Amino acid sequence: MRGDKDVTRGRFLEAINRIKSGTVTNKELKTRNSVKLNRSTVEKEAGLGVGSLRHYPDIVEKIDGVSDDGLIAQGKYEALKNENKKLKIDKRDISKDRDVHKKAAEKAKLNLNKKLSAQHQLVTALFDRVPIEEREELMKKISNKSADGKVTRISEYKSS
Predict the structure, then answer these.
(1) Per the structure, how many domains does the chain have?
(2) Within this chain, do residues 59 and 116 fall inside the same structural domain, yes or no?
């Protein structure tokens, strides 16, 4: 009789290992997306009757002590692998988008600088067309408006 208990204990331990690794052999357990490591699933995987674990308190302790929630997913590795693959694709797409937007931003900055330069040249040329005797009065009117640096500062040309 002692030998039978050892054989049964071995079946339970093998069942626990198969559930942990996600390689269950029981037909019912194979159909599940995930298999929880609990007394019922271990008894099913070991091919033994319901309640047969009650005679093996050491095995019950192993089952209860594996994890608090007892969840060991049969296809968890594959699910995580697929999720990782999707994240890598997303990362690659984001990197491509970042590069495209970075190039567009650089091009826009270059165009903006060209337009600002052209605007500055135009304002300077127009200012030069204002007669010298009218420049002082014109400067007084606009000097406060150009203090934020967003408008060409005509006061820079006062000495002209």
Answers:
(1) 2
(2) no
For residue 21, being part of any structural domain is answered with yes
Q: At 144, list the tokens.
A: 């406060």
Predicted confidence (pLDDT) per residue in 28-52, tens digit: 888 888 888 888 899 988 898 888 8
Which pLDDT value is given to residue 148? Answer: 57
Instruction: Write down the residue that tokens 């047969």 correspond to.
Output: 52
Q: Contact at 8 Å (CB) between 48 and 13? A: no
Kindly report the CA angle at 73 between 29 and 11, in degrees rounded to 5? 50
83-89-90-92 Cα dihedral, nearest 10 degrees: 150
Residue 68 lies in a domain: yes
Domain extent for 65: 2-74
